[in-house]
Amino acid sequence: MTEKKKNSVLGGILDLIILVLIVGGAGYFGYITGLNQRLAPVQLVPAGTLGAIWPAKENGPAKPETPASSEASAQASNQNSKSSETVASAETETASSPATAKPSGTSTPKGKTKYWLVSSGEEYIGSSITAKVNGDTVDIFFAPGKSIDISRKIKSGKNTLTFECKALEEGYNKHPGDASFALSVKLVSGPTIRDDFAPSAVLFTCKRTAADTKDATETKTFTAKE
Description:
Blueprint: H1 2-39, E1 56-57, E2 60-61, H2 67-96, E3 114-121, E4 127-133, E5 136-141, E6 147-149, E7 158-167, E8 182-190, E9 202-209, E10 216-223
Antiparallel strand pairs: 1-2, 3-6, 3-8, 4-5, 4-7, 7-10, 8-9
């Protein structure tokens, strides 16, 4: 009787041990299988594959781009590109188009009579001619070929033009005593400033020859035309 009880207890213990081993083995096998699957390399598949998982990015999971969103992105990119090209084209046109230069205080409004001084004749005649309009010095003439617009210096009504002629040193006179060599400064008026003006457009003329050796001053008075 005692012998049978011992055998029964030992059999129960063995059965329990076998059960524990089976359960533990099954759990270990499942753990190893799951670990292998987690460590398995990612397989790249074509876009649109069912069950495919998109790889995660640093800032969150990447979302698949649908055809509609792709077209919208392409259109937005094209619009941005066209806008950039338009701005660049406008900047290029602005940069390539020269700015309209405005005369620096020497021209009158369009439609008004213009006034300008022109020098002609010879150089090195031993004198200089300083022109003053209403007391303001406009320029000093030493040689021919100079044209100065004095329209903005002219006021409506009465004006004065003064020529101050000054004798220079002997080195500036290549024709001493010869009155045939002269330098002239003319006051000209007209609708537009031009070199081929008519003689009738000349209001006053100051002439200085190589034979003139003394300083002199000439003052002319005139009324400005509208």
